[in-house]
Amino acid sequence: MSAMKILAHIRTEEVPGGYQITMETDDGQVIRVFATENQVSDLADELDELLDDDEVEFTPEQKHVGEEQLS
Which domain of life is it from (predicted)? Predict the structure, then answer.
């Protein structure tokens, strides 16, 4: 398994049949994936659960992720 990358930007777009999710890592790598409505809903549910967990602590770098728009 490769080393974990740091997410720098994320953008979602509705496309025919689902959604395109575009992620850019801090080293400039861009990854585009297609997801169905069910997959996006499941991801949103998982993220809600993570964010509701009172024990989750974010570093300043993690808090910064998502504040900028993908160029």
Answer: Bacteria
